[in-house]
Design goal:
Shape: globular
Strand content: over 45%
CATH architecture: Roll
Helix content: 25-40%
Number of domains: 1
Radius of gyration: 14 Å
Structural class: alpha+beta
CATH class: Alpha Beta
Order of helices and strands: HHEEHEEEEH
Distance between the termini: 37 Å
Amino acid sequence: MEKLVRDIYAARKRGDYDAMAEMCAAGASLRLAGAPEHFPLAGTTRGRAALRERFAALAQFAFANQKMISISVDGDRATVHWRASVTYKPTGKSAVTEFCDLWTVKNGKMTSLIQFIDTALVGHMTA
């Protein structure tokens, strides 16, 4: 479980979206938490092919100095608290921020990922 989570973060860092998608179950989902009317990136993406496209689209956010602050695993679920320096490539705006990711893994594949981020910061960076 923990290895899969770490492997997906490593694939993201390398920009290997195909590898990320392959580590997801066929019907897996990614939800960026937030109110869509205030945070256009919020919402749920389902299915391996759609996830691969979503991962690539999110590459407009470059991450540096990623640090996993903590990981807690309980059965098929994991919670990861992490920090990174994030740059939104189109505007060049950067900030250091923290994230909380809630993972569900079944049969060695990610079935669900919910990511909580500073939506106000993302709004500022993308404006």
